Amino acid sequence: MNIYDVSEHAHVSIATVSRVINGNPNVSEKTRKRVLDVMKELGYTPNVFARSLGLNTMKTIGIMCADSSDPWLAEAIYYLEKELRGNGYDSILCCTGYLPETKKKYLELLRSKRVDAIILTGSHYIEAKPKDNVYLLEAAKDLPIMLVNGQLDGEQIYSTVCDDHAAVYDAALRLYRSGRSSVLYLYSGNSFSNLNKLSGYRDAVRDAGFMVRDELMVLCSKDLDAAMERLDTISRSGVYFDAVLASEDILAVGAVKYADKAGLTIPKDLSIIGYNNSILSKCTTPEITSVDNKVESICTTTVNTLMKVLEEGNVPGKTTITPELIKRGTTNF
Amino acid sequence: MNIYDVSEHAHVSIATVSRVINGNPNVSEKTRKRVLDVMKELGYTPNVFARSLGLNTMKTIGIMCADSSDPWLAEAIYYLEKELRGNGYDSILCCTGYLPETKKKYLELLRSKRVDAIILTGSHYIEAKPKDNVYLLEAAKDLPIMLVNGQLDGEQIYSTVCDDHAAVYDAALRLYRSGRSSVLYLYSGNSFSNLNKLSGYRDAVRDAGFMVRDELMVLCSKDLDAAMERLDTISRSGVYFDAVLASEDILAVGAVKYADKAGLTIPKDLSIIGYNNSILSKCTTPEITSVDNKVESICTTTVNTLMKVLEEGNVPGKTTITPELIKRGTTNF
DNA sequence: TTGTATGCGTTATCAG
DNA sequence: CTGATAACGCATACAA
Question: Is the residue at B288 inside a domain?
């Protein structure tokens, strides 16, 4: 069942059939109707492979992420896919894990599939050392590279980021202003985004007139129990803190559980702020004040930018989205 | 940069280059090496579009789900993608939402992309009325249809399901055996899976020697606050219950919040069991006893089955996975 | 408005 | 072991 069959049945050439398929206006209404009828009658569907070969594109975007089951990434993927499909593009999903070599390997793989662009979802794709990002600059010579919550300067590389520094700065400052004297910052890694957040925390501590203390900046694996135990250990070791600011909601949940266990009242004895405004922040009692980093905005912006890029339009290399602090029960402001 | 360029540089025919690419053994070691060297030197990558056209397959599977940001579905997608990629297949993601028409539309869309098979993820794809599933039977004439946690009999349709009936039956019975007299069943819809669960609940109530009462089977939207308020309303209306069995963890979280609000002690005054054993079940205090329905097993089984199907192997149309009750703090057994 | 002819980059079937 | 050549199904430049 191909374009030839249709052309025969409709008594026209394949060129005309092709024109009908592609909505070319240079077809008389009469023949157009006849061809459409035949197509329906035969149940004809154009062969995308043949079309792709000629046009050298399949209208497909590669979406890379470390782990699509991570709540934030899952939500991002949801919006990206929806938005891309709305623009007539398919999405090939590719979960790369967190290892640099595999990220690189999968990027190559997607590239060999001739996708029209690649979206790197999440802040884990930008490494601290510039040389570790060279492969992205290299790839961007062939196709547009879109960064969701990550930033890198380069030709054909487009970043849409949430202003994490400002968000954490603001959150920390509010804690101090509400009477807290010792805000512990709990974070889960050294990604681009995490480094920004940490720097926001540092600046806030200084601007609030306090000392930045190493023992109050705590690295911890992205796990509820780990966070809880970490805080417990720190407290027992004699370090005092009356607020926890976390780089992820799950760590903030850990903080709530720690408070429960230690018999602390929230927010009186311990204030807590999470990050991402995910469903997790609503599962605890009290519910967790959390930074909403606007996944949906970031993703729709990314896709809109990409569409403009693919239409050869001129677009900025970086767009910044402003986060918002959602106040709930773990803070007293 | 194509196979002709390589053939010229290597002084062989394109047939030989093609043989090298595809690992055909009928090539002398010497020429193979020469060709490989040239390919590397030129940075040649085979054009997947041309290859697809010839072979009439792109080694790509369509993954449909209602909403990839739903935690259970997100996890399923993660495992499916990983497993498929391990077998050399790409995954095209397609979020269809919950409306029958759009599900149908997107199925057709994926079909027109000539994917090698379609995986329907989640129990929302099987409708109660047989006629509403006819389109799946129709599609299955062209390609394998895999159901993840849904069941439908038909040629080229393969189901991998969790025994939800048994899981809920078992959970409810344990509640009664632990001294509960009035177990409220809270559920969020009438999908295939939900109907199975409900029937498991009913059977357990009877087998425990109690009456099945309509007011204890409560339909509620899949939302934390909705669940909490629903329970509150029911309780105020004079209906007594000392246990809540939920069809989703999020509803169980709502039950925990209800207990907090109503001043009930968990599990003494109110026992709670959730479903899915998701991260949500660990966020509350106490943590929620929940049914683990083995997402990973279901997904790897699905992909393994699919691979056998694509190799023309003989495989069963239905595989059942046994769930497991994970005991935590919201029950006293 | 319609038709003819050609190219897109492979794979696979033959013949050597 | 290697090479020539015909599909694969479509889009499009050019001709009519």
Answer: yes
Contact across the interface for A113 and B90, Cβ inside 8 Å: yes
Residues A213, A275 within the same domain: yes
Shared domain check, B284 and B177? yes
* Separation in Å, CA of A117 to nearest CA in chain B: 15
Helix, strand, coil shares of chain B as percentages rounded to 5? 50, 15, 35
Output DSSP code: residue B128: S
**Among all chains, which residue has been given the structure tokens 């790839």?**
A139
| Its pTM surpasses 0.90 | yes
Least CA distance to B94: which residue of chain A? Answer: A81
Q: How many CA atoms lie within 13 A of A163 on its CB side?
A: 12
Alpha carbon distance B271, B333 (integer Å)? 10
Q: Specify the 3-state DSSP secondary structure of B289.
A: strand
Question: Does residue A53 belong to any structural domain of this protein?
Answer: no
User: Does the CB of B324 have a partner CB in chain A at under 8 Å?
Assistant: no
Considering only CB atoms, which chain B residues are within 8 Å of A94?
A: 81, 85, 90
Nearest to A67 among B78, B112, B282 (CB): B78
Looking at the structure, tell me whether residues A214 and A316 fall in a common domain.
no
Give the range of the structural domain holding residue A313, as residue numbers without chain letter: 60-161+295-323
Q: In a structure prediction context, what are the per-residue pLDDT tens digits for chain B, which is 333 residues long?
A: 899 999 999 999 999 999 999 999 999 999 999 999 999 999 999 999 999 999 999 999 999 999 999 999 999 999 999 999 999 999 999 999 999 999 999 999 999 999 999 999 998 899 878 899 999 999 999 999 999 999 999 999 999 999 999 999 999 999 999 999 999 999 998 888 899 999 999 999 999 999 999 999 999 999 999 999 999 999 999 999 999 999 999 999 999 999 999 999 999 999 999 999 999 999 999 999 999 999 999 999 999 999 999 998 889 999 999 999 999 999 998
DSSP per-residue codes, A67-125: -TTSHHHHHHHHHHHHHHHHTT-EEEEEE--S-HHHHHHHHHHHHHTT-SEEEEESGGG
Q: Starting from the edge strand earliest in sequence, which strands make up the sheet with A183-187, in order?
A: A217-219, A183-187, A243-246, A271-275, A289-292, A324-326
- The reply to whether A177 and A75 lie within a common domain is no
Asked if residue A55 keeps its beta carbon closer than 7 A to nucleic acid strand D, the reply is yes
Say yes or no: A140 and A87 in one domain: yes
Q: Nearest Cα to A294, choosing from A314, A315, A320, A323?
A: A323
Structural domains of chain B, count = 3
Q: Do B284 and A285 lie within an 8 Å CB cutoff?
A: yes
- Whether B237 is covered by a domain: the verdict is yes
The CATH number linked to B140 is 3.40.50.2300
Considering the domain architecture, whether residues A191 and A286 belong to the same structural domain is answered as: yes
Decide: B110 and A85 in contact? Cβ < 8 Å. Answer: no
A15 in reach of chain B (CB within 8 A): no
Write out residues 107-146 of B within 8 Å (CB-CB) of A.
111-114
Residue B314 CB lies within 7 Å of the nucleic strand D: no
CB contact A265 to B (< 8 Å): no
Rounded to 5 degrees, what are φ and ψ at B43? 65, 45
Q: Testing the interface with A: which of B87, B285, B328 to mutate, by most A Cβ within 10 A?
A: B285
